[in-house]
Specification:
single chain, 305 residues, four-stranded mixed sheet, binds nicotinamide-adenine-dinucleotide, binds ketopantoate, 6PGD_dom2, pantothenate biosynthesis, EC 1.1.1.169, oxidoreductase
């Protein structure tokens, strides 16, 4: 019998994973915030995945954090700013050798969870898949991509990667997951804040090439200083490639701001600026970018962190 996948966070990625695992016949349970959310969920037929315009509903079992069953495998699919407190509510249910998969973007939240659970195996993930909710308990699979998983402390891959294979979740085990997360963080720092400040799609940043290049130079310096030289390789070229390849898209941070949602700034630009300060590295354009972005968030009544 396969180990149950407990999924924490019935948002875009959590639902995307839950429905694909359920589609493959694997045992999945969705952990909802409280009794009210569970009642709302149980009033429907389950979780719906919309892919290529075709929708299918899967009757995934829901539960609240106070369900007594132990958790052996937990997929943490909350936003970075919610991960630590959401996991804390489940701490008493985690078995001694529990494994967690942390899907959060950016850096900082993963270390907070690791520090909170020294016994558990925490696997970090970095995903280029794209999904959004078009209603409660529904997800639209908007962008096919890849998920890299890795464990900097234990390089051996877990056996349950077979489950991902069976579920059709494109993935790869990575022995340099931190490099991947740093690289993605740098890309997000070079692109996302500017799309908020200029209120534009990614492609329009082609008209701000100098500013992007200056940020890439500073981010490269930071990556080198943080012991991540591979993440710095050809960064500007990669950022320009992504801007071109995603020209018609709005960045995730742009979408958060446009929908008046809290951003993950503290785990992206905030984390980068803090790391620079720790290394006494002067990165004036990156620091100025953080100030400008926070001003913009505050002006819109959004949290500054
Ligand atoms: P989301 O906001 O759609 O979903 C998060 C869910 O977690 C929400 O439903 C929220 O209610 C729930 N949650 C928060 N605290 C909880 C708690 N204590 N108990 C139970 N549920 C709780 O977010 P998302 O878009 O799925 O993103 C999750 C992470 O994945 C983010 O770090 C994001 O940057 C990253 N990511 C998302 C995408 C994407 O396409 N959506 C792609 C790549 C990476
Ligand atoms: O990951 C992204 C995002 O929007 O968060 C891209 C498309 C790479 C832009 O930084």
């Amino acid at each position: 019998m396969s180990t149950t996948w407990h999924i924490l966070g019935a948002g875009s990625l959590g639902t995307l994973w839950a429905t694909r695992l359920a589609r493959a016949g694997l045992p999945v349970r969705m952990i909802l915030r409280d009794k009210a959310r569970l009642a709302s969920y149980q009033a429907g037929k389950g979780l719906t995945l919309v892919e290529h315009g075709i929708e299918k509903t899967y009757p995934v079992i829901g539960e609240t954090p106070d369900n007594p069953e132990p958790i052996h495998r937990l997929l943490v699919a909350c936003k970075a700013y919610d991960a630590q407190s959401a996991v804390a509510h489940l701490q008493h249910r985690l078995s001694p050798h529990a494994e967690l998969v942390l899907l959060q973007n950016g850096l900082g939240s993963q270390d907070a969870v690791v520090a909170q659970l020294p016994q558990a195996r925490c696997i970090f993930a970095s995903s280029t898949e794209g999904a959004f909710r078009d209603g409660d308990w529904r997800v639209v699979f908007a962008g096919h991509g890849y998920t890299w998983l890795g464990d900097a402390a234990h390089p051996a891959p877990p056996l349950w990667l077979n489950d991902l294979h069976a579920a059709g979740i494109p993935h790869e085990w990575s022995t340099d997951i931190l490099t991947r997360l740093w690289r993605k963080l740098a890309l997000n720092c070079a692109i996302n804040p500017l799309t908020v400040l200029y209120q534009c799609r990614n492609g329009e940043l082609q008209t701000h090439q100098c500013e992007v290049a200056t940020l890439c130079a500073e981010l490269g310096e930071l990556l080198e200083c943080c012991g991540q030289p591979d993440a710095a390789l050809d960064l500007q070229h990669e950022v320009e490639r992504v801007i071109h390849a995603t020209a018609a898209n709005y960045s995730s941070m742009y979408q958060d701001v446009a929908n008046a949602r809290r951003t993950e700034i503290s785990y992206l630009l905030g984390y980068a600026c803090q790391a620079a300060a720790r290394h006494q590295l002067n990165l004036p354009h990156l620091q100025q970018l953080q100030v400008r972005l926070i001003d913009q968030l505050v002006a819109r009544g959004l949290p500054r962190d």
